[in-house]
Protein backbone atom coordinates (compact mmCIF):
# COMPACT_ATOMS: atom_id res chain seq x y z
CA UNK A 1 0.00 0.00 0.00
CA UNK A 2 1.01 3.63 -0.28
CA UNK A 3 1.52 6.61 2.01
CA UNK A 4 1.31 10.19 0.83
CA UNK A 5 2.72 13.49 2.06
CA UNK A 6 1.85 16.76 0.36
CA UNK A 7 4.03 19.86 0.54
CA UNK A 8 4.09 23.46 -0.64
CA UNK A 9 6.61 26.25 -0.46
CA UNK A 10 6.24 30.00 -0.47
CA UNK A 11 9.45 30.33 -2.43
CA UNK A 12 11.88 31.50 0.23
CA UNK A 13 14.79 29.13 0.78
CA UNK A 14 15.69 29.12 4.47
CA UNK A 15 18.77 27.47 5.92
CA UNK A 16 18.08 24.52 8.15
CA UNK A 17 20.09 22.52 10.60
CA UNK A 18 19.89 18.77 10.11
CA UNK A 19 20.76 18.15 13.72
CA UNK A 20 17.79 20.18 14.92
CA UNK A 21 15.16 18.76 12.58
CA UNK A 22 12.68 16.49 14.30
CA UNK A 23 11.45 13.38 12.47
CA UNK A 24 7.67 13.32 12.60
CA UNK A 25 6.55 10.06 11.06
CA UNK A 26 7.79 6.50 10.92
CA UNK A 27 6.60 3.88 8.48
CA UNK A 28 4.20 1.63 10.29
CA UNK A 29 5.13 -1.25 8.00
CA UNK A 30 1.61 -1.53 6.62
CA UNK A 31 0.83 1.58 4.68
CA UNK A 32 3.29 3.37 2.49
CA UNK A 33 3.70 7.08 3.13
CA UNK A 34 2.68 9.62 0.54
CA UNK A 35 3.65 13.22 1.21
CA UNK A 36 1.88 15.94 -0.78
CA UNK A 37 3.43 19.41 -0.97
CA UNK A 38 0.93 22.16 -1.70
CA UNK A 39 -2.76 22.96 -1.32
CA UNK A 40 -3.36 24.65 -4.64
CA UNK A 41 -5.37 23.32 -7.55
CA UNK A 42 -3.20 20.26 -8.19
CA UNK A 43 -2.70 19.24 -4.57
CA UNK A 44 -6.31 19.79 -3.52
CA UNK A 45 -7.66 17.94 -6.55
CA UNK A 46 -5.34 15.02 -5.75
CA UNK A 47 -6.48 14.92 -2.12
CA UNK A 48 -10.18 15.12 -2.96
CA UNK A 49 -10.02 12.04 -5.21
CA UNK A 50 -7.43 10.00 -3.33
CA UNK A 51 -8.58 6.97 -1.34
CA UNK A 52 -6.71 7.96 1.81
CA UNK A 53 -7.65 4.74 3.59
CA UNK A 54 -5.02 2.99 1.48
CA UNK A 55 -2.16 5.27 2.53
CA UNK A 56 -0.52 7.17 5.33
CA UNK A 57 -1.22 10.63 3.90
CA UNK A 58 0.40 13.86 5.04
CA UNK A 59 0.03 17.33 3.57
CA UNK A 60 2.50 20.18 3.96
CA UNK A 61 1.68 23.74 2.90
CA UNK A 62 2.43 27.24 4.19
CA UNK A 63 -1.29 28.07 3.79
CA UNK A 64 -4.05 26.17 5.53
CA UNK A 65 -6.62 26.92 2.84
CA UNK A 66 -7.40 26.38 -0.84
CA UNK A 67 -8.05 29.55 -2.85
CA UNK A 68 -10.12 29.72 -6.05
CA UNK A 69 -7.44 31.68 -7.92
CA UNK A 70 -9.43 32.49 -11.11
CA UNK A 71 -11.45 34.95 -9.00
CA UNK A 72 -8.43 36.78 -7.55
CA UNK A 73 -8.91 39.78 -9.91
CA UNK A 74 -12.46 40.11 -8.55
CA UNK A 75 -11.07 40.27 -4.99
CA UNK A 76 -8.80 43.21 -5.87
CA UNK A 77 -11.76 45.53 -6.36
CA UNK A 78 -14.26 44.10 -3.90
CA UNK A 79 -16.50 42.37 -6.43
CA UNK A 80 -15.94 39.22 -4.40
CA UNK A 81 -14.71 39.09 -0.81
CA UNK A 82 -11.48 37.23 -0.02
CA UNK A 83 -13.03 34.75 2.39
CA UNK A 84 -15.67 33.81 -0.17
CA UNK A 85 -13.15 32.06 -2.41
CA UNK A 86 -11.21 30.10 0.23
CA UNK A 87 -11.93 26.75 1.80
CA UNK A 88 -9.94 25.54 4.83
CA UNK A 89 -7.80 22.54 3.99
CA UNK A 90 -8.94 20.74 7.12
CA UNK A 91 -12.55 21.01 5.92
CA UNK A 92 -11.54 19.31 2.68
CA UNK A 93 -9.46 16.49 4.13
CA UNK A 94 -11.87 15.58 6.93
CA UNK A 95 -14.42 14.50 4.29
CA UNK A 96 -12.02 11.92 2.80
CA UNK A 97 -11.95 8.21 3.58
CA UNK A 98 -9.14 7.52 6.00
CA UNK A 99 -7.05 9.98 7.96
CA UNK A 100 -5.03 12.77 6.34
CA UNK A 101 -2.65 14.82 8.45
CA UNK A 102 -1.93 18.45 7.64
CA UNK A 103 1.12 20.52 8.64
CA UNK A 104 1.18 24.29 8.06
CA UNK A 105 4.82 24.83 7.12
CA UNK A 106 7.23 25.62 4.29
CA UNK A 107 9.21 22.84 2.69
CA UNK A 108 12.83 24.00 2.79
CA UNK A 109 14.53 21.06 1.10
CA UNK A 110 13.80 17.76 -0.60
CA UNK A 111 16.39 15.06 0.12
CA UNK A 112 15.79 12.81 -2.87
CA UNK A 113 18.53 10.33 -1.96
CA UNK A 114 17.15 9.59 1.52
CA UNK A 115 13.41 10.02 0.72
CA UNK A 116 12.99 12.85 3.20
CA UNK A 117 11.82 16.46 3.21
CA UNK A 118 12.80 19.19 5.68
CA UNK A 119 10.20 21.75 6.73
CA UNK A 120 9.83 24.80 8.92
CA UNK A 121 6.69 26.42 10.28
CA UNK A 122 6.57 30.20 9.95
CA UNK A 123 4.28 31.74 12.54
CA UNK A 124 4.28 35.44 13.36
CA UNK A 125 3.72 34.94 17.07
CA UNK A 126 6.14 33.24 19.44
CA UNK A 127 5.42 29.54 19.76
CA UNK A 128 6.76 26.96 22.20
CA UNK A 129 8.85 24.15 20.79
CA UNK A 130 10.83 23.64 17.60
CA UNK A 131 9.32 24.85 14.33
CA UNK A 132 11.60 22.64 12.23
CA UNK A 133 10.82 19.03 11.41
CA UNK A 134 11.44 16.38 8.77
CA UNK A 135 9.16 13.88 7.08
CA UNK A 136 10.03 10.58 5.47
CA UNK A 137 8.12 9.43 2.41
CA UNK A 138 7.67 6.44 0.18
CA UNK A 139 6.03 8.60 -2.48
CA UNK A 140 6.29 12.36 -2.77
CA UNK A 141 3.76 14.49 -4.66
CA UNK A 142 5.20 17.93 -5.42
CA UNK A 143 2.45 20.47 -6.14
CA UNK A 144 4.01 23.67 -4.82
CA UNK A 145 3.11 25.89 -7.76
CA UNK A 146 5.42 28.57 -9.09
CA UNK A 147 6.51 32.10 -8.25
CA UNK A 148 6.26 35.32 -10.25
CA UNK A 149 8.92 35.74 -12.93
CA UNK A 150 10.47 39.22 -12.67
CA UNK A 151 13.09 38.53 -15.38
CA UNK A 152 15.55 40.21 -12.98
CA UNK A 153 14.12 43.59 -13.97
CA UNK A 154 15.48 46.24 -11.56
CA UNK A 155 12.95 47.53 -9.03
CA UNK A 156 10.16 45.03 -9.75
CA UNK A 157 10.28 43.17 -6.42
CA UNK A 158 10.45 46.42 -4.46
CA UNK A 159 7.92 48.55 -6.33
CA UNK A 160 5.41 46.28 -8.05
CA UNK A 161 2.33 44.38 -6.97
CA UNK A 162 1.69 40.78 -8.03
CA UNK A 163 -1.48 38.72 -8.32
CA UNK A 164 -0.43 35.15 -7.61
CA UNK A 165 -2.20 34.41 -4.33
CA UNK A 166 -4.86 35.74 -1.98
CA UNK A 167 -2.48 37.94 0.02
CA UNK A 168 -1.46 39.67 -3.22
CA UNK A 169 -5.11 40.41 -4.06
CA UNK A 170 -5.81 41.86 -0.61
CA UNK A 171 -2.66 44.00 -0.75
CA UNK A 172 -3.63 45.23 -4.20
CA UNK A 173 -7.13 46.14 -3.04
CA UNK A 174 -5.78 48.28 -0.19
CA UNK A 175 -3.33 50.06 -2.49
CA UNK A 176 -6.05 50.90 -5.03
CA UNK A 177 -8.06 52.64 -2.31
CA UNK A 178 -4.89 54.33 -1.00
CA UNK A 179 -4.22 55.80 -4.43
CA UNK A 180 -7.64 57.48 -4.49
CA UNK A 181 -7.37 58.68 -0.91
CA UNK A 182 -3.96 60.21 -1.64
CA UNK A 183 -5.27 61.90 -4.78
CA UNK A 184 -8.00 63.81 -2.94
CA UNK A 185 -5.71 65.21 -0.25
CA UNK A 186 -5.56 69.03 -0.20
CA UNK A 187 -2.61 71.03 -1.60
CA UNK A 188 -1.73 68.47 -4.30
CA UNK A 189 -1.11 69.70 -7.81
CA UNK A 190 -3.14 68.24 -10.68
CA UNK A 191 -0.01 66.48 -11.95
CA UNK A 192 0.48 64.80 -8.58
CA UNK A 193 -3.15 63.70 -8.54
CA UNK A 194 -2.79 62.25 -12.05
CA UNK A 195 0.34 60.37 -11.02
CA UNK A 196 -1.40 58.82 -7.99
CA UNK A 197 -4.27 57.71 -10.22
CA UNK A 198 -2.21 56.17 -13.02
CA UNK A 199 -2.58 52.41 -12.79
CA UNK A 200 -0.11 50.43 -14.92
CA UNK A 201 -0.54 46.72 -15.67
CA UNK A 202 2.57 45.03 -17.07
CA UNK A 203 1.54 41.95 -19.01
CA UNK A 204 -1.39 41.53 -21.37
CA UNK A 205 -2.31 37.98 -20.43
CA UNK A 206 -5.60 36.86 -18.85
CA UNK A 207 -4.68 38.03 -15.31
CA UNK A 208 -3.56 41.51 -16.35
CA UNK A 209 -6.48 42.04 -18.70
CA UNK A 210 -9.04 40.88 -16.14
CA UNK A 211 -7.57 43.17 -13.45
CA UNK A 212 -7.70 46.13 -15.87
CA UNK A 213 -11.35 45.32 -16.64
CA UNK A 214 -12.26 44.95 -12.94
CA UNK A 215 -10.51 48.21 -12.07
CA UNK A 216 -12.33 50.06 -14.85
CA UNK A 217 -15.70 48.71 -13.67
CA UNK A 218 -14.84 49.69 -10.08
CA UNK A 219 -14.06 53.18 -11.32
CA UNK A 220 -17.14 53.88 -13.44
CA UNK A 221 -19.66 52.03 -11.28
CA UNK A 222 -18.54 53.03 -7.78
CA UNK A 223 -15.55 55.33 -7.41
CA UNK A 224 -16.81 58.18 -9.61
CA UNK A 225 -19.59 58.70 -7.08
CA UNK A 226 -17.26 58.46 -4.08
CA UNK A 227 -14.39 60.58 -5.47
CA UNK A 228 -16.13 62.95 -7.93
CA UNK A 229 -13.34 65.56 -7.85
CA UNK A 230 -10.75 63.24 -9.42
CA UNK A 231 -12.88 61.05 -11.67
CA UNK A 232 -11.45 62.61 -14.84
CA UNK A 233 -7.83 62.16 -13.75
CA UNK A 234 -7.78 58.35 -13.62
CA UNK A 235 -5.79 56.48 -16.25
CA UNK A 236 -5.37 52.73 -16.75
CA UNK A 237 -2.53 51.48 -18.98
CA UNK A 238 -1.76 47.92 -20.10
CA UNK A 239 1.86 47.38 -21.19
CA UNK A 240 2.49 44.33 -23.36
CA UNK A 241 5.78 43.25 -24.92
CA UNK A 242 4.03 41.35 -27.71
CA UNK A 243 1.97 42.72 -30.57
CA UNK A 244 -1.42 41.97 -28.99
CA UNK A 245 -3.01 41.38 -25.60
CA UNK A 246 -4.48 37.94 -24.87
CA UNK A 247 -2.14 36.49 -27.47
CA UNK A 248 -2.76 32.93 -26.23
CA UNK A 249 -6.43 33.28 -27.23
CA UNK A 250 -8.02 33.19 -30.66
CA UNK A 251 -7.14 36.34 -32.61
CA UNK A 252 -10.84 37.24 -32.76
CA UNK A 253 -10.92 37.47 -28.95
CA UNK A 254 -7.67 39.44 -28.87
CA UNK A 255 -9.06 41.95 -31.37
CA UNK A 256 -12.39 42.20 -29.52
CA UNK A 257 -10.60 42.87 -26.21
CA UNK A 258 -8.40 45.59 -27.73
CA UNK A 259 -11.40 47.31 -29.31
CA UNK A 260 -13.38 47.21 -26.08
CA UNK A 261 -10.47 48.58 -24.05
CA UNK A 262 -10.09 51.37 -26.59
CA UNK A 263 -13.78 52.29 -26.20
CA UNK A 264 -13.45 52.17 -22.41
CA UNK A 265 -10.45 54.49 -22.41
CA UNK A 266 -7.97 51.83 -21.23
CA UNK A 267 -4.65 52.50 -22.94
CA UNK A 268 -2.97 49.44 -24.47
CA UNK A 269 0.73 49.84 -25.28
CA UNK A 270 2.09 46.91 -27.28
CA UNK A 271 5.68 46.32 -28.30
CA UNK A 272 7.00 47.75 -25.02
CA UNK A 273 9.50 46.04 -22.75
CA UNK A 274 9.86 47.29 -19.18
CA UNK A 275 13.52 47.83 -18.26
CA UNK A 276 13.16 49.23 -14.72
CA UNK A 277 10.59 50.28 -12.13
CA UNK A 278 11.11 52.89 -9.41
CA UNK A 279 8.72 54.02 -6.71
CA UNK A 280 7.55 56.88 -8.93
CA UNK A 281 8.27 55.90 -12.55
CA UNK A 282 8.28 52.93 -14.87
CA UNK A 283 10.84 52.94 -17.70
CA UNK A 284 10.08 51.13 -20.95
CA UNK A 285 11.92 50.41 -24.18
CA UNK A 286 9.88 50.70 -27.36
CA UNK A 287 10.72 47.66 -29.49
CA UNK A 288 10.18 49.25 -32.94
CA UNK A 289 12.37 52.31 -32.29
CA UNK A 290 14.54 51.23 -29.37
CA UNK A 291 13.94 54.51 -27.53
CA UNK A 292 13.42 54.66 -23.78
CA UNK A 293 10.48 56.42 -22.18
CA UNK A 294 9.47 56.87 -18.55
CA UNK A 295 5.96 57.39 -17.23
CA UNK A 296 4.86 58.19 -13.66
CA UNK A 297 2.61 55.75 -11.85
CA UNK A 298 0.59 55.34 -8.70
CA UNK A 299 0.46 51.53 -8.83
CA UNK A 300 2.12 48.87 -10.99
CA UNK A 301 0.81 45.32 -11.31
CA UNK A 302 3.43 42.90 -12.64
CA UNK A 303 1.77 39.97 -14.41
CA UNK A 304 4.26 38.54 -16.91
CA UNK A 305 4.56 34.82 -16.22
CA UNK A 306 5.99 32.37 -13.70
CA UNK A 307 9.30 30.81 -12.69
CA UNK A 308 10.49 27.84 -10.63
CA UNK A 309 10.59 28.10 -6.83
CA UNK A 310 14.02 27.81 -5.15
CA UNK A 311 13.18 24.59 -3.31
CA UNK A 312 12.22 22.92 -6.61
CA UNK A 313 15.32 24.33 -8.30
CA UNK A 314 17.48 22.77 -5.57
CA UNK A 315 15.69 19.45 -6.05
CA UNK A 316 16.34 19.65 -9.82
CA UNK A 317 20.06 20.09 -9.14
CA UNK A 318 20.06 16.91 -7.04
CA UNK A 319 18.48 14.73 -9.73
CA UNK A 320 20.42 16.03 -12.73
CA UNK A 321 17.85 18.50 -14.09
CA UNK A 322 19.82 21.60 -13.05
CA UNK A 323 20.14 22.92 -16.61
CA UNK A 324 16.39 22.83 -17.21
CA UNK A 325 14.12 25.82 -16.68
CA UNK A 326 11.30 23.80 -15.14
CA UNK A 327 10.98 20.38 -13.49
CA UNK A 328 10.35 17.65 -16.07
CA UNK A 329 8.06 14.65 -15.63
CA UNK A 330 7.09 11.80 -17.89
CA UNK A 331 3.58 11.27 -19.24
CA UNK A 332 2.56 9.57 -15.99
CA UNK A 333 3.59 12.68 -13.99
CA UNK A 334 6.55 10.92 -12.40
CA UNK A 335 9.60 13.15 -12.14
CA UNK A 336 12.30 12.04 -14.54
CA UNK A 337 15.41 10.51 -12.96
CA UNK A 338 13.35 9.47 -9.90
CA UNK A 339 11.29 6.40 -9.01
CA UNK A 340 8.94 7.70 -6.32
CA UNK A 341 8.48 11.46 -6.82
CA UNK A 342 5.58 12.94 -8.77
CA UNK A 343 5.08 16.57 -9.76
CA UNK A 344 2.01 18.32 -11.10
CA UNK A 345 0.59 21.78 -11.66
CA UNK A 346 2.61 24.92 -12.34
CA UNK A 347 5.84 23.57 -10.82
CA UNK A 348 6.40 20.96 -13.54
CA UNK A 349 6.02 20.23 -17.23
CA UNK A 350 5.46 16.97 -19.07
CA UNK A 351 8.46 16.10 -21.24
CA UNK A 352 6.54 14.32 -23.95
CA UNK A 353 8.45 11.45 -25.52
CA UNK A 354 8.86 11.86 -29.27
CA UNK A 355 7.53 9.13 -31.50
CA UNK A 356 10.69 9.27 -33.63
CA UNK A 357 12.71 8.17 -30.58
CA UNK A 358 10.85 4.84 -30.69
CA UNK A 359 10.23 4.61 -34.43
CA UNK A 360 12.44 1.52 -34.90
CA UNK A 361 10.88 -0.26 -31.91
CA UNK A 362 7.37 0.55 -33.20
CA UNK A 363 8.24 -0.77 -36.64
CA UNK A 364 9.68 -3.99 -35.24
CA UNK A 365 6.67 -4.50 -32.95
CA UNK A 366 4.28 -4.08 -35.87
CA UNK A 367 6.34 -6.26 -38.25
CA UNK A 368 5.08 -9.52 -36.80
CA UNK A 369 6.34 -11.66 -39.68
CA UNK A 370 9.84 -10.07 -39.60
CA UNK A 371 9.66 -9.35 -43.32
CA UNK A 372 11.27 -5.92 -43.03
CA UNK A 373 8.13 -4.27 -44.37
CA UNK A 374 4.74 -3.31 -42.92
CA UNK A 375 1.36 -4.05 -44.41
CA UNK A 376 -1.71 -2.03 -43.51
CA UNK A 377 -3.06 -4.98 -41.50
CA UNK A 378 0.13 -5.15 -39.42
CA UNK A 379 0.15 -1.42 -38.81
CA UNK A 380 -3.51 -1.32 -37.75
CA UNK A 381 -2.70 -3.80 -34.95
CA UNK A 382 -0.58 -1.19 -33.15
CA UNK A 383 -2.41 2.03 -34.12
CA UNK A 384 -4.46 2.26 -30.90
CA UNK A 385 -1.35 1.81 -28.74
CA UNK A 386 0.53 4.49 -30.70
CA UNK A 387 -2.28 7.02 -30.31
CA UNK A 388 -2.59 6.27 -26.58
CA UNK A 389 1.17 6.45 -25.96
CA UNK A 390 1.94 9.59 -28.00
CA UNK A 391 -0.70 12.36 -27.56
CA UNK A 392 0.87 14.46 -30.32
CA UNK A 393 -0.36 11.91 -32.87
CA UNK A 394 -4.01 12.75 -32.27
CA UNK A 395 -3.26 16.49 -32.33
CA UNK A 396 -1.45 16.13 -35.66
CA UNK A 397 -4.30 14.13 -37.21
CA UNK A 398 -6.86 16.73 -36.11
CA UNK A 399 -4.80 19.63 -37.42
CA UNK A 400 -4.27 17.87 -40.76
CA UNK A 401 -7.95 16.85 -40.91
CA UNK A 402 -7.00 13.19 -41.23
CA UNK A 403 -9.45 10.56 -40.13
CA UNK A 404 -7.00 7.87 -39.08
CA UNK A 405 -3.29 7.28 -38.52
CA UNK A 406 -3.27 4.79 -41.38
CA UNK A 407 -3.89 7.70 -43.78
CA UNK A 408 -0.29 8.76 -43.19
CA UNK A 409 0.99 5.46 -44.55
CA UNK A 410 -1.07 5.32 -47.72
CA UNK A 411 1.15 7.75 -49.64
CA UNK A 412 4.31 6.01 -48.42
CA UNK A 413 3.22 2.56 -49.62
CA UNK A 414 4.24 1.29 -53.04
CA UNK A 415 1.37 0.89 -55.50
CA UNK A 416 2.02 -2.73 -56.33
CA UNK A 417 2.98 -4.24 -52.97
CA UNK A 418 0.99 -2.06 -50.56
CA UNK A 419 3.87 -2.31 -48.10
CA UNK A 420 6.29 0.17 -46.55
CA UNK A 421 9.85 -0.30 -45.32
CA UNK A 422 11.48 1.38 -42.32
CA UNK A 423 12.64 4.44 -44.29
CA UNK A 424 9.21 4.98 -45.78
CA UNK A 425 7.68 4.52 -42.33
CA UNK A 426 9.97 7.19 -40.87
CA UNK A 427 9.13 9.57 -43.71
CA UNK A 428 5.40 9.11 -43.14
CA UNK A 429 5.57 9.67 -39.37
CA UNK A 430 8.35 12.24 -38.88
CA UNK A 431 6.12 15.35 -38.95
CA UNK A 432 3.96 14.11 -36.08
CA UNK A 433 6.41 15.32 -33.40
CA UNK A 434 5.98 18.91 -34.61
CA UNK A 435 2.74 18.93 -32.61
CA UNK A 436 4.48 18.27 -29.28
CA UNK A 437 3.56 21.21 -27.03
CA UNK A 438 3.76 22.11 -23.35
CA UNK A 439 0.56 22.39 -21.36
CA UNK A 440 -0.38 25.88 -20.10
CA UNK A 441 0.10 26.74 -16.42
CA UNK A 442 -3.60 26.96 -15.62
CA UNK A 443 -5.94 25.79 -12.87
CA UNK A 444 -7.70 23.57 -15.41
CA UNK A 445 -4.52 21.61 -16.18
CA UNK A 446 -3.50 21.32 -12.51
CA UNK A 447 -6.96 20.11 -11.48
CA UNK A 448 -7.04 17.41 -14.15
CA UNK A 449 -3.53 16.25 -13.25
CA UNK A 450 -4.50 15.93 -9.59
CA UNK A 451 -7.54 13.81 -10.45
CA UNK A 452 -5.50 11.63 -12.79
CA UNK A 453 -2.73 10.96 -10.28
CA UNK A 454 -5.22 10.17 -7.51
CA UNK A 455 -6.86 7.61 -9.79
CA UNK A 456 -3.47 6.03 -10.49
CA UNK A 457 -2.70 5.81 -6.77
CA UNK A 458 -6.13 4.32 -6.04
CA UNK A 459 -5.69 1.64 -8.71
CA UNK A 460 -1.98 0.98 -8.24
CA UNK A 461 -2.37 -2.59 -6.98
CA UNK A 462 -5.01 -3.61 -9.52
CA UNK A 463 -3.09 -2.20 -12.47
CA UNK A 464 0.12 -3.97 -11.50
CA UNK A 465 -1.74 -7.25 -11.96
CA UNK A 466 -3.87 -6.10 -14.89
CA UNK A 467 -2.11 -3.25 -16.75
CA UNK A 468 -4.42 -0.73 -18.42
CA UNK A 469 -1.88 1.32 -20.37
CA UNK A 470 -0.59 1.10 -23.93
CA UNK A 471 2.05 -1.31 -25.16
CA UNK A 472 5.68 -0.66 -24.18
CA UNK A 473 7.46 -0.17 -27.49
CA UNK A 474 10.81 0.77 -25.93
CA UNK A 475 11.05 -2.01 -23.37
CA UNK A 476 10.40 -5.70 -22.77
CA UNK A 477 8.47 -7.05 -25.71
CA UNK A 478 4.76 -7.57 -25.23
CA UNK A 479 4.48 -5.80 -21.86
CA UNK A 480 2.15 -2.88 -21.23
CA UNK A 481 2.32 0.25 -19.11
CA UNK A 482 0.37 -0.02 -15.86
CA UNK A 483 -1.71 3.09 -16.58
CA UNK A 484 -2.74 5.11 -19.60
CA UNK A 485 -0.63 8.29 -19.78
CA UNK A 486 -2.12 11.60 -18.66
CA UNK A 487 -4.22 13.20 -21.37
CA UNK A 488 -5.33 16.80 -20.93
CA UNK A 489 -8.83 17.68 -22.12
CA UNK A 490 -9.34 21.36 -22.80
CA UNK A 491 -12.79 22.66 -21.83
CA UNK A 492 -12.19 26.23 -23.00
CA UNK A 493 -11.07 29.45 -21.34
CA UNK A 494 -12.67 32.75 -20.36
CA UNK A 495 -11.51 36.36 -20.46
CA UNK A 496 -13.84 38.75 -18.56
CA UNK A 497 -13.52 42.19 -20.17
CA UNK A 498 -15.67 44.37 -17.90
CA UNK A 499 -19.01 46.04 -18.48
CA UNK A 500 -20.74 42.69 -17.99
CA UNK A 501 -19.03 41.38 -21.13
CA UNK A 502 -16.66 38.46 -21.49
CA UNK A 503 -15.01 36.41 -24.21
CA UNK A 504 -14.70 32.64 -24.26
CA UNK A 505 -12.76 30.15 -26.33
CA UNK A 506 -14.65 26.87 -26.31
CA UNK A 507 -13.84 23.38 -27.61
CA UNK A 508 -14.37 22.86 -31.30
CA UNK A 509 -12.88 26.24 -32.26
CA UNK A 510 -15.97 28.05 -30.98
CA UNK A 511 -15.61 31.66 -29.90
CA UNK A 512 -18.22 33.50 -27.87
CA UNK A 513 -18.17 37.18 -26.89
CA UNK A 514 -20.52 39.63 -25.22
CA UNK A 515 -23.06 39.83 -22.39
CA UNK A 516 -24.35 36.25 -22.76
CA UNK A 517 -20.79 34.96 -22.36
CA UNK A 518 -20.48 36.88 -19.08
CA UNK A 519 -23.50 35.00 -17.71
CA UNK A 520 -21.92 31.74 -18.89
CA UNK A 521 -18.79 32.80 -16.96
CA UNK A 522 -20.88 33.37 -13.81
CA UNK A 523 -22.48 29.94 -14.05
CA UNK A 524 -19.24 28.06 -14.77
CA UNK A 525 -17.24 29.74 -12.02
CA UNK A 526 -20.03 29.22 -9.50
CA UNK A 527 -20.27 25.53 -10.39
CA UNK A 528 -16.50 25.03 -10.12
CA UNK A 529 -16.29 26.19 -6.49
CA UNK A 530 -14.76 23.60 -4.17
CA UNK A 531 -17.72 23.50 -1.74
CA UNK A 532 -21.35 24.55 -1.43
CA UNK A 533 -20.28 27.03 1.23
CA UNK A 534 -17.97 28.97 -1.11
CA UNK A 535 -20.49 28.60 -3.95
CA UNK A 536 -23.16 30.34 -1.88
CA UNK A 537 -20.75 33.03 -0.68
CA UNK A 538 -19.55 33.88 -4.19
CA UNK A 539 -23.08 34.07 -5.61
CA UNK A 540 -24.19 36.24 -2.68
CA UNK A 541 -21.19 38.55 -3.27
CA UNK A 542 -22.17 38.96 -6.93
CA UNK A 543 -25.76 39.69 -5.89
CA UNK A 544 -24.64 42.20 -3.26
CA UNK A 545 -22.49 43.98 -5.82
CA UNK A 546 -25.42 44.29 -8.24
CA UNK A 547 -27.63 45.79 -5.52
CA UNK A 548 -25.28 47.84 -3.33
CA UNK A 549 -22.10 48.21 -5.36
CA UNK A 550 -18.56 47.42 -4.23
CA UNK A 551 -17.18 48.24 -0.79
CA UNK A 552 -14.43 50.89 -0.89
CA UNK A 553 -13.34 50.52 2.74
CA UNK A 554 -9.63 50.09 3.36
CA UNK A 555 -9.54 47.08 5.69
TrEMBL record:
Q: Does the keyword Secreted apply?
A: no
The protein's annotated catalytic reaction(s) are:
a quinone + NADH + H(+) = a quinol + NAD(+); a ubiquinone + NADH + H(+) = a ubiquinol + NAD(+)
Membrane topology type: Peripheral membrane protein
Task: For this UniProt record, give its keywords in alphabetical order, as a comma-separated list.
Answer: Calcium, FAD, Flavoprotein, Membrane, Mitochondrion, Mitochondrion inner membrane, NAD, Oxidoreductase, Peroxisome, Transit peptide
**Example GO molecular function:** calcium ion binding
Q: Which InterPro entries match?
A: EF-hand-dom_pair (IPR011992), EF_Hand_1_Ca_BS (IPR018247), EF_hand_dom (IPR002048), FAD/NAD-bd_sf (IPR036188), FAD/NAD-binding_dom (IPR023753), NDH-2 (IPR045024), NDH2-like_C (IPR054585)
Taxonomically, the superkingdom here is: Eukaryota
Q: Where in the cell is it found?
A: Mitochondrion inner membrane; Peroxisome
Q: Which GO terms describe its cellular component?
A: mitochondrial inner membrane; peroxisome
What EC number(s) would the UniProt record show?
1.6.5.9
Q: Is Flavoprotein among the key words of this record?
A: yes
Cofactor(s) for this protein?
FAD
Domain (EF-hand) spans 354-389
Tell me the protein family, please: Belongs to the NADH dehydrogenase family.
What is the protein name stated in its UniProt record?
A: NADH:ubiquinone reductase (non-electrogenic)
